[in-house]
Predict the structure of FANCG protein.
Amino acid sequence: GLPAALPVLPLELTVLYNSLLFTVGASDSAIKGEAEGIRQGLLRVLEACGACGQDLGTEELWEKVLQEVTVEELQAPLHCLGALQAAWWLAASQLGSVAGLFQLLSTAEDPGRAHCSEGQNKLLSLIKAWRVPPEGASLPLVQSAKDLKEILCTAAAFLQGLHELEAGNFPIALSLLQEAAGGFCSKNILAQIYTCLGCCAQRMDKPQTALQHLKRALQVDFQCLPALSHVAVVYHDLGETDAELQALTLLYEALGKSPPAAASSSPCFLMQAELLVHTPVLTSLLRRRHPSEVKYLLAQRCLQDGRVADAVEHYLDFLSLLQEGLQQQVPLDGNSALPRIPEVFLEAASALEQAGRHQDAITVCEEVIGRTTDLIPQVLRVEQRLEQSESSLPGAELAGGLLSQQKESLCCLAWRAAGYLHQGWAWAKLGKSKEAVTQFSRCCLHVCVCLPVAENLQPEVEVLQKIRLLSLLGRGMQFLELGRNKEALLDFQHSLQISPGDPAAASYLVQALWNLNRKQEAAAQWQKFSQNCPAEDGQQQGQGRPLPLYLVSCLEQAVFPHSEALARSIQDYLGAAAQDTPS
């Protein structure tokens, strides 16, 4: 409450500088908000000089102080306080304010000093051009202005590199992040910078460079586990499955261990770069995966790569985690690797089927069927007009809610139907054709979806159509096994209505006609499909969306296994028919 006096202002500003640093160091958390103490200090300076600045914003206040206050004894403490103000503005990503402040600081010292060469980063050039004031022995600082300048340079380069990375300007981002990596920082922040360098190189399609940066991050700080997560992603993109699985295994083991007590690698500094850089893109890149997510990724990758025994082990481990309240531990947001829980159950069933554990697969599917029964409405109306009303007000919100409900209902319908589908295949593998026909029939009954539908619902409907196709093929195959060739023929005809030109459906249709001794029709259909199948198959591969993982094994089981034998029989028949025809 004492009036401001010029003789004691240097001491007052130094005490303010030190107290703010102590406050930052004690909190050990990211800097947020405004440094009100700095503003009050500047107003005290103006008061002592007989000026006023209560109505000015912080940037205008700094401009007024640096331009009008020329007392020599105040220059050093004002510059130190200016560096601290820059730290607060950096933490708020106010890069323009930081650049303007250092322009003023350098101009106040030497009008010709604040100059940025072409090709250089303006902000970094201004910070580097700032001449640190000499530290007086009578007014010691808890953190020197020189060290603070180095930290500001590192944080500014890191922050701008992240902004350029988010904007897709990868070469500029790479240059700025490399500048930050050569700066003054702790091991923790250096590992984060190398992780971001790795992500940048990965997006530039330079996987080997990305791996070098990510491995460097782990060498600097092995507790930087997001780097290990990104290593697995790079190996996945390279198709190096062994290395990817090894990285995921290491990540899972590391996540399961208690991290060592975080010892600061630079305990003498109260202001550090990690307190200044906290952006959404950094949070996303450094997201720490939950152990269960990594366990699921291991299961999924093993299943995709055909490592069935390992996939089963990982899926069963994951399902056991569900008993421990996994859904409360992991947010199932857009960043999570976890799909919807019923899909995980279905993938586990697929793995169990492929491992020959058919009864276990049936049990897992029964869990899905039981859990989704009450979630499917008795009547599911899917209307095309929702697509039009979704974009028109005032009904947009209502239409969006209806669309979301219908998507959820269609997903539940698909999961339940897929449960019956997998049970059908499992019973078929057990040699129980009648039980298999029953489950395939239940599947067919669940996926009678009327079209047309809103475009936004098309992916869900495509999955349902694929499930219906696979269930008809599966049931038709079992009818063939039971000698019920007419019923089999009907199922294969319906399959071709759903997916015209489908190679498996076409081949089974020919087989059913052949078994019914309708050999001329079989031969005609075989010739027709032989001519059209390659072009249509290629067309189908180039279009459509990828199948859910839990349906891939069903698709493989539906492949017609006797193509060559059937082709020889039909060719022999055609050859014999040609000989019998009089010339």
